[in-house]
Automatic annotation (TrEMBL):
It comes from Tritonibacter horizontis. This is Glycosyl transferase family 2.
Amino acid sequence: MDNTAQMSRDSRLVVVVLRNEIKRLPSFLAHYRRLGADHFLVVDNSSDDGSAAYLQAEASRGDLSLWQTSDSYRESRFGLDWSGWLLMRYGHGRWCMTVDVDELFVYPGMERHDLRELTDCLDRSGQGGMGALMLDLFPKGPLNQHQEQAQQAPTDLLRWFDAKPYRMVRQAPQGNLWLQGGPRARVFFAETPDQAPTLNKIPLIRWNRRFAYTNSTHAALPRELNALYDGPGGPVPSAVLLHTKFLPEVVEKSPSERKRRQHFHNPDLFDDYYRELAQGPDLWHAEAVHYESPEQLAALGLCRPMDWSASREGTA
């Protein structure tokens, strides 16, 4: 269902590719609507859990356009061909948020300054985008011993995170950040830390048809876009993507995802990861921090707030 004719030239867009996310979709759409997103561009990749029907119903509101495909996620460069086409076709000149359904974009001051105010502030300060740490949230106790309630938001169950340590380097030739850490590095890749998932992303960009993401939203071209994010402790204003991967369903999904081999450039390196997830591990530890707010994350150095007053003064 194509509702893009209802978009204005300054619509703030959310671009997402998904498969079987019925448990996250209600809270995902509610979060970004509350944040101030104007329109969702959604690609559904052969969902069979009710996601497709739910999205079709949501499209009737007029602020969501839906495309469906049964093609290979892996062979589409992990969905980049699909999202890249949408960004090229509809994103040019607009602020675009490219995220997964298990990622909730948060930033200090979001209760007072919505997405439009944030992007206006970025425009005034000459910052063409905003990077984010993908922060893995997890429950207290084994993953397979929690029960989800109907319509429960993932963040109601996943309330803990690792505040440290995180390590990062710049990579050649694109100059993109390589940031690792959190519970996945601590639990699943303790012996092979270089194989731990990448946690840096640049999800929010005022798009140009000449731009392109090259590795999920971890890296982009032209290479100057990668300078938009310096990681935790950096001087550039940044956000956090609350990553809600570790719902109880991840335990039952892991064996099938391992067989599908649709994620990761070298899926063989992640066989043990999926096997361990299927056992329902406990990711909690004594130094885990209970999530409270984006302001808490800023105080811990995991993101940097916008200077809202300075940006306003700069236009006086």
